[in-house]
Amino acid sequence: MRSAPTTSEALLWAELRGSRLGVGFRRQRVIGPYIVDFCAPRAGLVVEVDGGYHAERARADARRDRWLEREGWRVLRLSAEEVLADARAAAAKVRAALG
């Protein structure tokens, strides 16, 4: 949620905001029936930060990813643990996904 992001989301947002990677990101955006953690509309990239509960939601997440991909989005999933361990390295993965 925008008003109360998780620690991992807040850390990654600090690396993405202000076009720090050369492209503008938005957070907590509605795309169709879904709310995505972050997206770069001009680059067509969605970035999701997955906490531990996502292990139980693998099928739902896969269905969501397929829907987003059919709509023209690429989806990058990062674990909350990797963002917490090294937010800059996580941002480097986002930069690589941007092409």
How is this structure best summarized?
With 99 residues, the chain is an alpha+beta fold. Helices cover 41% and strands 25% of the residues.
What does this structure look like?
The protein is an alpha+beta fold and 99 residues long. The protein has one domain (7-98): VSR Endonuclease (Endonuclease, Chain A). It is 41% helix and 25% strand. The protein has four helices and four strands. The protein has helices at 7-16, 58-70, 80-85, 87-98; strands at residues 26-31, 34-40, 45-50, 74-79. It has a four-stranded mixed beta sheet with strand order 1-2-3-4, with helices on both faces. A hairpin with a 2-residue loop joins β1 and β2 (34-40). The model has no long low-confidence stretch (mean pLDDT 93).
Q: From N to C, what is the helix and strand string?
A: HEEEHEHH
Tell me the overall shape: globular
Order of neighbouring strands in the sheet with most strands: 1-2-3-4
Architecture, CATH level 2? 3-Layer(aba) Sandwich
CATH topology: Endonuclease, Chain A
Mean pLDDT: 93
Number of helices: 4
**What is the count of distinct domains?**
1
Q: What percent of the residues sit in helical stretches (DSSP H or I)?
A: 40-55%
SS elements, strand count: 4
Structural class: alpha+beta
